[in-house]
Amino acid sequence: MLSQTLAAAETVDRIVSREWNMFHTVNEGGARAACQDDRVTFDGMRRGQFDAWSQEAAESYLGDLEDAERSGRNLVSEKYIHMMRTTEPSKYEQLLSQIEKPSESARALAGELSDKLLAQTEALFEKYPYVAGSGRPLRSAHDFGGVVSVETYQLGELLTYSARTLDALLRHVLALESEGVSFAGRVLENSAAFYGYKNLDEAETAAKERADGMEFELTYGCASCDSCNPAMCAERRA
User: Fold this and answer.
1) Residue 7: which pLDDT band, with cuts at 50, 70 and 90?
2) 17: confidence class by pLDDT, cuts 50, 70, 90
3) What's the total number of domains in the chain?
4) If 0-12 CB within 10 Å is exposed, 13-18 middle and 19+ buried, where does residue 14 land?
5) Residue 37 resides in a domain
6) Residue range 108-138, pLDDT digits in tens
7) Which residue intervals of 72-128 are DSSP H helices?
8) Where does 25-54 have alpha helices with state H?
9) Residue 208 forms part of a structural domain
10) 46 Cβ partners below 8 Å, 6+ apart?
11) 65 lies in a domain?
């Protein structure tokens, strides 16, 4: 069991390191966002996602990242381009030729997985409105003025995964659900733990008390700028 735990931690370490290298250079040559220099928060939030994955899915995604490195692809940049399909359609059409298009099987799996995770996230919005429901809107239909929905962000990321990774992750999500466990809930719990909360109930109480002028947003595994959760950050700084 210890060896399995160590292997899982090493896999997550390798994933996050490679993602950081990609994220860190997304705007290379242009204006940098402050979060691109915040390795600590990036690590915490991305680990919160991948600690909820099965080892099979995590190892498969690590393989995706390694393949991308060898071919000179930046999967983080590609994620943002996929997001532009609903947020900036004209720009999306211009940039689409610069990225590798997902296979039909990958698109189908990404859509199925996105629908499943959106249903779980909607339940979290209802149960933890201050923690999960006051940041991004849930659906792509509500993308506007630079505000990107959970659906748009989540699907943009899923479309950068291989069909192999999507299949493994979907099977994991369904297996958890059959046991009454929400994958999206686990990711949010991990994020709350990173900011020092014992559980989501404690995080919800704290977020409610500090609700004025604050937002707490839930995405597939990361918030705005891939790393920072405004409400939790405010709590941690207090």
Assistant:
1) confident
2) very high
3) 1
4) middle
5) no
6) 999 999 999 999 999 999 999 888 866 678 8
7) 75-87, 89-95, 104-127
8) 39-50
9) yes
10) 15, 16, 19, 20, 221, 222, 226, 227
11) yes
